[in-house]
Amino acid sequence: MKKIFYIVTCLCTGVLFGFERPENVPSKITEIRAKTWYQEISQSWHQYLTENPSDEDGWINYFKASVYAGKGKAELVTIADKAKEYFPDSYTSHYLAFKMEGWSDEGVQHLMSALAINDKSDYTLEDQLILADLINDSERMATSTKVFHAGLIHSSTLNYTYNLLMSVNENGLLVTDALHTTVPIWVLQDVMGIRKDITILNLELAEEQEAYVTKTLAKKNIGSSVNHLLSKENTSEIFYALTLPRRHLQEIESHLYVVGLASTNGHESFNHFEKLKENMEEKFLMDYLTIDFNGEPKTATGNVLSSNYIVPLLLLKDFYDNLNNEERSNQLKQQILELSKDSQIKTRVELLLNGRKTPRTFKVVKLDTKSLDKSMKPIKNKIYASEVELKNSEFWFFMEYLRTNGYTKLYESAYPDISEYDDLTKALLFNYQYSPANATSVKNSRSGNYLDYPVLDITHKTAQAYCEWLTVQYNAQEKRKFRKVLFRLPTKEEWMISALGYKEFTSWRIEENTIQAKELEGKSAYQSYNLSEYQISYPWGRSAWSLRNSIVNNKDCYLANVKVPEDVVCAAGIKGDGYTFVSPVATYFANGFGLYDVIGNVAEMTQNEGEAMGGSWNHEADESTIQSMNEYDGSDISVGFRLFMEVIEE
What we know:
The chain has 25 helices and 15 strands. The chain is α+β, with helices and mostly antiparallel strands. The longest helix has 17 residues, at 35-51.
């Protein structure tokens, strides 16, 4: 009989069916989990509450998980209404009504009703603190103490918050957004007495409570509206937390300088690098980033927010690059890489560091951004590639810009050196390569034999300098497609996938893709080919799988400009591939992305100095494939580059 009772009990509680009580959802002042975790735990709470609807705290956890998972308003209303059905006029029903209404007057009334029923729950401690700041300053210190002693805030979060406060000048105003990053500030000010001189304005509260804005700004006598704080007209010394979404800063973004974990309005005499250095090296507490004193989880809010150090550290690295302090620069580089290793922006950070040099300020000139935007073909994930290799006309414009605007050092380092070639090659390159005389002649005659040919025989550093210059120019143009971009050289993986030309690729590693291709040219049906099993050498494999490893078509005509015997003549009467040297860009057919000459013509540089891809006019066919890596030293008359563009902000 006891055994039967035990089984019945288990069935009633749902344990045998897996309906064990899910993990509580921590407040974001404590931990910040991945969105997928919130989605999974939201589903778990839904299943659990289906069997156990009398768990009052469970409804709060279900609601919080659903909010953090990004559920829509309709679903949140359903959860709040269901909880109200089970617990009418209760702490839970009023609290969830408050969460739905936010910090509006109606929402505040629901919160106060919930607290009148139960003000002991840890769930509401941070809300009690926000409420105190909003309408009852006299209780804020006592509530901050409760939050602190409840253990809701990890040490890493307090360290991060301390450094944020140290980024602000004496008696400054700090604008914040997310309440989970603002609550720890009040705790530090109230409990530890740290930087009580700083006034905090939280935009989330400001959007709901006009009286809160008036009260806060009156302390600083700097106007009466949030719009004023976020406008170009504002000249006050105001600081903006780096966690602020860019939508709030669109009007003033170009005037802001990062000085730590906050930015502030700058002007010509403002030495923001010195201020940044002072804050980060003399005022900040940084040991916690490398030493875990308390065994905190990686999801602790302070640990998650630590990626915000990357931008100021990059800028500080620039400062030491300017001083030619290589040792300190390398220390900062390693710190940046360590901070980004578990971050979604790891790849972008590595690319920035690999191509980063002493920052330059370029005079802005007018560019034809319409043509430039049109020439950049989308690959995937905001990565674009130029349809053609960089042309002489574009490089010559760059060189003339450097020469006439006084960038002497960069101009001299980028100037093509043909002195070491034999006389025959010198004669060939004399008209092909840039020189002031060539540039003047072309400008006057508006013609030139080699303007539409790819630039070649330049160094990796020169190619990077061009990318840096173009990035500055593009981002400063009024008429441009994207708000902010980064022009750069590609990684080998990016280059190979772009050269493959298969738009439906799923991995940046060629061998991890399966493509649909026609066995023969014409009307044959598409079939699936796993590239871990098949070798593919050329970008025309999809339209003619049988020709995927052939440099010639069915008429034995060459499909790219590579090194071929001079006595070869195809059925169309073309000698060789049609050229004994480089050919004009876009001479041969484009691949599936619309990129011309990915094979042959000039080998194309990658992020790795000394490594170019795709072969050239001076490489055999088997050295000129979408997976061919061609080594070069310094500069080479068979090597050029293709622009890649990463959209940073649309």
